[in-house]
Amino acid sequence: MASVENHYDRHLGPVYSWMLGGATVALENARDELRESGIGAGLQSVAVDLGAGTGAHSIALAELGFSVIALDTCAKLLDELKLQAGSRPIVPVLGDLVSFPTHCPARVDLILCMGDTLTHLPSLASIGELFQNVRATLAPGGSFLATFRDYAGAPLLGLMRFIPVRSDEKYILTCFLEYQEQRVMVHDLLHVRGESGWTTTVSCYPKLRLDPVWAREALVGLGLAASLERGPRGMLRLTATLLR
């Protein structure tokens, strides 16, 4: 079993952009997600993109006028983000997600945590700490937006645990889920076609079986107005606003 950081550094990082359909597709999807979430122009506003990856959401936010702090634990993904970002007002930061306030101004207007990043955290306690930091960092009227998969409900069974992610003439990526009491082990099987034929590498890492209702109620308990709804690509969308 690899840590989340090692899994991305050594296994998924090199094909991450391809996995999302390429930079253009990823950016279009990010624009759609922000629009569907009601995020509009952010002139002179500061946003934090937790688990920024190659920067699709960071770039979409910058297009809306936000200054963006883009934080991730994978250096390779942040290198791609820098290339994609160009001269946009995006500051890439390599660091731990929970301790993001150390890289931020005292108050920010928007915090994103998209693409199932929340479930990468090791425990409910770490998510609780992240939520406390969100509460402490948001400006009054500011919002927190996260998307994640519901692994806490009934587990997938049998062949449904094998999930084709993407394939073409060079790569085939398949995900296999192995459910445990508090976590789900995510096995990523990557087939790469080279000059001498196909090679296969496998790596696995844990994701947290995060109860969506618990997540919403944890934010409400901190004084935020929070809601859950269906999000993109089978995920849930968690939105919370710090009341003025």
List keywords for this structure.
244 residues; alpha/beta; Rossmann fold; N-terminal domain of TfIIb; 2 domains; seven-stranded mixed β-sheet; four-stranded antiparallel β-sheet
Question: Would you mind describing this structure in some detail?
Answer:
This protein is an alpha/beta fold and 244 residues long. It folds into two domains: 4-151 and 210-242, Vaccinia Virus protein VP39 (Rossmann fold, 3-Layer(aba) Sandwich), CATH 3.40.50.150; 158-207, Single Sheet (N-terminal domain of TfIIb), CATH 2.20.25. 29% of the residues lie in helices and 35% in strands. The chain has seven helices and eleven strands. The strands form two sheets. Strands 3-2-1-4-5-11-10 form a seven-stranded mixed β-sheet, sandwiched between helices. A four-stranded antiparallel β-sheet has the order 6-7-8-9, with helices on one face. Helix 3 (23-36) packs across helix 4. It is globular and about 60 Å long. The mean pLDDT is 94.
Query: How many β-strand runs?
Result: 11
The secondary-structure element order is HHHEHEHEEHEEEEEHEE
- What gyration radius follows from the Cα positions, in whole Å? 18 Å
Rounded mean pLDDT is 94
Discrete helix count: 7
Q: Globular, elongated, flat, extended or rod-shaped: what is the shape? A: globular
CATH topology of the largest domain: Rossmann fold
Name the CATH homologous superfamily of the largest domain.
Answer: Vaccinia Virus protein VP39
**CATH architecture assignment of the largest domain:** 3-Layer(aba) Sandwich
Which secondary-structure class do the elements indicate? alpha/beta
The largest β sheet comes out as:
7 strands, mixed
Range of helix content: 25-40%
Strand content: 35-45%
Unreliable segments (pLDDT under 50, ≥5 consecutive)?
A: none
